[in-house]
């Protein structure tokens, strides 16, 4: 965008004339209103930066924590084909985390800092990943419903006002679309299989349907960040709008699958041209958010352990990078600093390194 850059702002220094911030904010507001992208070096309000970091961190954390429930089934996939698909999918989720941590780094917040906050329980990830995967059919239900809900949420984020986030979402959505289809195809195979397989598919859908609807967040009138995010064009549609869209997409898909959505109040409303659906148990949602879901503790413990066990990989990556950036004739340091003590270089002024 042709807005004022952070460098220009810095040059203006502390003795910026009174009203300068208002002028910068006016340029920012005009850029957002004109659907221009805000880029890392552009001036932006502190609250916009903080809101984006919060959202991208939560999103990145959800991607990597979300690897756990499905990875649980890799060794037990019923065929080589299913195993290869599931491994590719779980690996994609790691990649999504990577793009999003990198996008957050463009705002001057390093990956190590965000991971520390996740491990300390100071930043959240999507509540959906605190539910267990009890049967193989859960892999299908997650693909169809959880990745499906993620796409519904994320397609509008491809038009988010912050450039690096929007661009990361374009690729993520393409991959999520594959995830959703593999889940649907898996459930279809089970649904058309033996009565026991059909029952397993139905049971998985029964357990994942309501938590999937909760993925869109609290109702609009109880959503703390929604209104401001929409003004900044980070968010394009309200939680309730997206939830409704998801329900309307899922109903005909469930019919084609030969499966029932577990909601006796679900019916077409001719007048609204949308489906009515039953009340969501927000009490359950808040309990899971508070840490009282079936798997909260297990997920965080496993994440911390994976991080500790991966320390040698980060150390090796730093040592390798240092070896290759050393000038000819100049010996690489004998012992590289541990990666966890030396996060990826991020300029203090919030400049991008990703
Ligand atoms: Fe993902
Ligand atoms: Fe996914």
Task: Please give a handful of descriptors for the protein shown.
354 residues, mainly alpha, two-stranded antiparallel sheet, 14 helices, disordered C terminus, binds fe (ii) ion, PaaA_PaaC
The largest beta-sheet arranges its strands as 1-2
Helical stretch count? Answer: 14
Poorly predicted segments: 9-14, 335-354
Structural class: mainly alpha
Average pLDDT confidence is: 89
Total strands: the figure is 2
Please give the largest β-sheet.
Answer: 2 strands, antiparallel
Characterization of the model:
This protein is 60% helix and 2% strand. It has helices spanning 6-12, 20-33, 46-65, 67-71, 80-105, 111-119, 137-154, 163-191, 195-214, 226-231, 239-257, 282-292, 296-309, 311-325; strands spanning 267-269, 274-276. It has a two-stranded antiparallel ribbon with strand order 1-2. The protein is globular. The chain is an all-alpha fold and 354 residues long. The two termini are 19 Å apart. Helix 7 packs parallel to helix 9. The protein is built from 14 helices and 2 strands. The longest helix is centred in the middle third of the chain and has 29 residues, at 163-191. One fe (ii) ion (FE2) binds at residues 63, 93, 96, 172, 176.
């Amino acid at each position: 965008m042709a807005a004022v850059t952070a460098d220009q702002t810095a040059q203006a220094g502390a003795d910026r004339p009174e009203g300068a911030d208002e002028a910068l904010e006016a340029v920012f507001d005009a850029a957002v209103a004109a659907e221009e992208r805000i880029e890392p070096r552009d001036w932006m309000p502190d609250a916009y930066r903080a809101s984006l970091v919060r959202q991208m961190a939560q999103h990145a954390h959800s991607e990597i924590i979300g690897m756990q429930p499905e990875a649980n089934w890799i060794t037990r996939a019923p065929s080589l084909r299913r195993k290869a698909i599931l491994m590719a999918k779980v690996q994609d989720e790691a990649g999504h985390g990577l793009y999003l941590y990198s996008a957050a780094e463009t705002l001057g917040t390093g990956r190590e800092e965000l991971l520390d906050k996740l491990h300390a329980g100071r930043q959240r990830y999507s509540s959906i990943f605190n539910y267990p995967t009890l049967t193989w059919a859960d892999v299908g239900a997650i693909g169809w419903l959880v990745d499906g809900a993620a796409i519904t949420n994320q397609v509008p984020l491809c038009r988010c006002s912050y450039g690096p986030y929007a661009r990361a979402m374009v690729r993520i959505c393409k991959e999520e679309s594959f995830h959703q289809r593999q889940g649907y195809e898996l459930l279809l195979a089970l649904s058309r299989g033996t009565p026991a397989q059909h029952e397993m598919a139905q049971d998985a859908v029964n357990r994942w349907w309501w938590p999937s609807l909760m993925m869109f967040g609290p109702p609009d009138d109880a959503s703390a960040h929604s209104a401001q995010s929409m003004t900044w064009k980070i968010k394009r549609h309200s939680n309730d709008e997206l939830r409704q869209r998801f329900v309307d997409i899922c109903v005909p898909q469930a019919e084609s699958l030969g499966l029932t959505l577990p909601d006796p109040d679900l019916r077409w409303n001719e007048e609204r041209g949308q489906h009515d659906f039953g009340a969501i148990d927000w009490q359950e949602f808040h309990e899971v958010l508070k840490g009282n879901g079936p798997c909260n503790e297990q997920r965080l413990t496993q994440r911390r352990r994976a991080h500790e066990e991966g320390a040698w990989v980060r150390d090796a990556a730093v040592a390798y990078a240092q070896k290759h950036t050393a000038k000819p004739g100049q010996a690489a340091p004998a012992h590289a600093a541990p990666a966890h003590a030396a996060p990826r270089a991020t300029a203090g002024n919030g400049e991008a390194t990703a």
